Amino acid sequence: MRFDVVTLFPELIETYCSCSIIGRAQKQDLISVNTVNPRDFTSDKHRSVDDTPYGGGAGMVLMCDPFFQSVDSVEKQENFELIMLTPQGETYNQELARELSKKDQLILICGHYEGFDERIREGLKPREISIGDYVLTGGELGALAIIDSTTRLLPGTLGKDESALHDSFSCNLLEYPHYTKPAEYRGMKVPDVLLSGNHKEIDRYRRKQSIKRTYERRPDLFKIFEKTELSKEDKIVLKELKLSQEI
Question: pLDDT per residue over 132-148, tens digit each?
Answer without folding.
Answer: 999 999 999 999 999 99
